[in-house]
Amino acid sequence: HCTERTFVAIKPDGVHRGLIGRTIARLEDKGYSLVALKLLKPSRTLAESHYESLRSKPFFGDLVSFITSGPVCAMVWEGKDVIGQVRKLIGNTDPLTCAPGTIRGDFGIDIGRNIIHGSDSISSAEREIQLWFHSEELVDWNPSLHEWVYE
Ligand code: DAT
Ligand code: MG
Q1: Å from CA of 17 to ligand 2 middle
Q2: Which residues of 89-112 are buried (b: 16+ CB within 10 A; e: fewer)?
Q3: ipTM field
Q4: Is the dihedral of CA 62, 64, 68, 72 positive or negative?
Q5: pTM for the whole thing?
Q6: Per-residue confidence in pLDDT tens, the chain, 151 aa
Q7: Most exposed: 31, 51, 71, 101, by fewest CB within 10 Å?
Q8: Ligand nearest to the CA of 115
């Protein structure tokens, strides 16, 4: 029934700080399902295309250096309204403006160390999933919790 998917990445700061388990737990706790997961050091090409809409920004160079420093924990998550709900769970771009209870609000301070990425729309989710994953890396499975999460 619910096949919306989003791309989520724990950035190098989140990986170094040991936040992989806790961020994954929040998405699992909500009821979403993991479709793909890998740890990698992104190439410059990958990082630049991921953030291509920000190419003209003054912070673009620092952003690409930061992301390529790795490791990044790249994931695809699935479920009803997952794109918008994950953005809410993550919080605003600037952690200092995030509500407590959000991932960035609870774990971050600076905008350039905001721990986690989540796609912002259906079109960017599709683009980012294709950019970071081969189709055979996306696992087709039926989580047994579905009937207890969805009515
Ligand atoms: P988000 O990650 O919330 O989708 P975005 O797509 O506008 O935010 O920007 C991508 C990343 O770029 C963001 O997570 C951190 C960095 N960034 C954005 N605005 C910035 C700024 N004003 N100064 C420094 N880094 C910034
Ligand atoms: Mg964004």
Answers
A1: 21
A2: bbbbeebeebeeebbbbbbbeeee
A3: 0.98
A4: positive
A5: 0.98
A6: 558 999 999 999 999 999 999 999 999 999 999 999 999 999 999 999 999 999 999 999 999 999 999 999 999 999 999 999 999 999 999 999 999 999 999 999 999 999 999 999 999 999 999 999 999 999 999 999 999 999 9
A7: 101
A8: 1
